[in-house]
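Issue 218. Parser rejects a valid record. Input:
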Amino acid sequence: MALDWSSGELAAGLSCYRNQQFFEAHEHWESVWNELKDPEKSFLQGMIQITVAMHHYRQANTAGARSLLQRALLRLERCPDCFGGVDVATLASEVHSWLSAFENSAASLPPVPAIGLIDRVSE
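Output the parser choked on:
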C-alpha cells in the first residue's frame, strides 16, 4: 500500500503534526497504521512514535519522549533515505539532534523534527 500524504487520514495527521497538535496527529495516523503491512506499517509506527514523543515532551514527560524517540529512530534507520514519500534521512537526523540534546541536558531543544515530503518521481 502506497502512503498518500495528500489526502485522507495521513494528510489530516500531517497537518495536525505541523500545527503541533501531536495527540490528534497520532490519532489520524493510527487509523491508517492498523491497515498497513510491513515495511510501511513499521515506518508509520516510527512516525507515530515521534508524534507521541513530542506529546510526552509537551506534558513534561522527558523520559517518555526520549524512549519513544529512541524506538522511532530504530525504525527509521531501517528505511532508505526516502521512504513512503518522506525525507527519512533528514527526519532521522533531527531525531538524533533531539536525543543528543537530551543526553547533554541542553537548556534548549532543537525545533520539532520536520516531516518533509519528497516528490514521488524522484523517490
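Fixed in the parser; the record now loads. The first strand starts at residue 82 and ends at 83.
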